[in-house]
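Dear support,

I submitted the protein below through the web form. The confirmation email said the job was done, but the results page showed an empty box. After a refresh the structure appeared. I'm attaching both so you can tell me whether what I see now is the final result or a partial one.
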Amino acid sequence: MWRRPAWQFLRTGLLRRCSWVFLSSPLLGHDICQPQVLRQLRQFVRHESDTVGSLVLERSMNRVQLLGRVGQDPIMRQVDGRNPVTIFSLATNEMWRTGDSDVTQGGDISQKTTWHRISVFRPGLRDVTYQYVKKGARLYVEGKIDYGEYTDKNNVRRQATTIIADNVIFLSDGGMKEKV
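What the results page shows now:
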């Protein structure tokens, strides 16, 4: 049988004509006409033009992972009858040595703290974070970044960057004052 690398297969546009093509890729030896192989390939194909030779591959990702400490107790808001949202801030620190100093020698250590606004919309996660996250708690947050605009009290347009949390993992009880 004739074998062709996956990138050549996709580039030549044989996705429509698959009667004898095999891939030499991690799918090793699977017939390209099998439905599960076609499904895997189609997830990478975003746009297919009319000409056979021009398949455009496109894959994008909007993913954020943060590990830090909570800066303020969460608040829950509900705007204009929409679903409520839990909002809190998370601080992440970046540290580095300045100059030519080695780890064993002395040197200046610089630090930068970045504050992130976290919004939690998922119903179960939203309620748990509102109830149990406290100022000072150490959290791991996964989500996506969102850029938005709003108009403040003085009728000035402002831009806001928010992390929309998909997952929150509690790493410590940092700010919890109650004992169970």
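Response: this is the final, complete result; the empty box was a page-load delay. The helical segments are 6-11, 35-42, 123-132.
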